[in-house]
Amino acid sequence: MTAYQNHIKALTELAGKNPNWAAINPEYAARMRLQNRFKSGLDIARYTAAIMRRDMAEYDQDASRYTQSLGCWHGFIAQQKLIAIKKHQKSTEKRYLYLSGWMIAALRSEFGPLPDQSMHEKTAVPALIGEIYDFLRQADTRELDLLFSALDKARAAGETREETALLAQIEGFQTHVVPIIADIDAGFGNAEATYLLAKKMIEAGACCIQIENQVSDEKQCGHQDGKVTVPHADFLAKINAVRYAFLELGVDDGVIVARTDSLGAGLTKQIAVSEKPGDLGDQYNRFLDCDEIHPAELQNGEVLISRDGKLLRPKRLASGLFQFQKGSGEDRCVLDCITSLQNGADMIWIETEKPHIGQIKGMLDRIREVVPNAKLVYNNSPSFNWTLNFRQQVFDAWQAEGRDLAAYQRDALMSAEYDETELGKVADAKIQSFQRDASRDAGVFHHLITLPTYHTAALSTDMLSRGYFGSDAMLAYVKGVQRQEIRRGIACVKHQNMAGSDIGDNHKEYFAGVAALKASGKDNTMHQF
Question: What is the CATH number of domain 37-288+324-459?
């Protein structure tokens, strides 16, 4: 007996015990149960956490089984992404969602567009998680509703083979609900603030929380200058806070991604507390850029540290921030990652300044000397000029091989004139295989793009606006949008159906029978599609 049939049987028995429920159709109620599989955000968090843990274990056995996601700034965008994945890839397996703090700041703050500096309302983060899952659950409801309507039609026509096939599709239905990796920035305050926000994010459905080691009130986008990191003890307290939030809410498999911005961060706000040589505080402080000083040289208000019998003065800026030694970024990243993985984090994220597998692998190899199963989440960032970066990588490799490069100008390789050249094609092939290669060679378990749908929204709007407000007028929409939707089989072309109109019609029939006033009658223009 299928799950669908089990629900019908159980609800038939329940209705039989309540004689005043004569108007309730057990099969309709069973359908509504199947269409609402997840009753709360915590149900989603537990379900998706188990998926991530399984995927992580499979990646440890086979690095070709990496995972991917795109960042989404609205529930509708996330919904359309998962509908497209199911349509084109036939499965949502190994496909996640990324919730970007950058996009919340830029697109979802009540203050209006903001830079990625944790100035947006912290409540916007769990609100977007909840919104995304509302839209994904609605995608489940809609797809199942179409199957149920087709089932009724097959039964009415006496098509038993079609009925059996539809029941099998209902039984094997794959939900649109997938894991979200959710950005909590630097925690929005102290460890208690981090814990409270993490709880709200988990309650909304987040099974994976990503947190970075910047100072909360100085937080900057990972691809901007001016980043300031915190000592390890401060960061580990916030990792602990997130873990406690997961455990309190019963999401025991919750995943924590610890992001280090140390590669591009040359400053720290405070000197770490060190109790003995070689402890974490001492290791952090050894990266400080210092001058040896004699006691007689002391000046008013100076901060000093003692190391290896020497008195040192850390270089301090007018802002009060302390400066790290130049060129120490990679060493600090490696220490950050090892420390986080040894103290509660499940995966690491190294924010880099370019997409270069050799650079990532070099750090990962050092990390895996201490933590053998270390796994990376990697930002395939739109902040990188992918075309120029990879063309220059190919140029440099060919130059090292002694090849003739007279046809190419390294600084001008972004030009379209190189698109069809051998160098351009080799670079494109490397971009195409970057995720596969990085997962095989550099321990990348998850590849994400933080804000792709920000860019796609801008690009598609530009293309439509150019034509619609120009000479093409209405043809710009018809040819560039609607005709493409119809021919590509994009379900959203029937926007009334996508918004839930047919679901509502069926519910009206459940509730009121033949007296239901439906919106999907003969005069509904959606029948044109």
Answer: 3.20.20.60
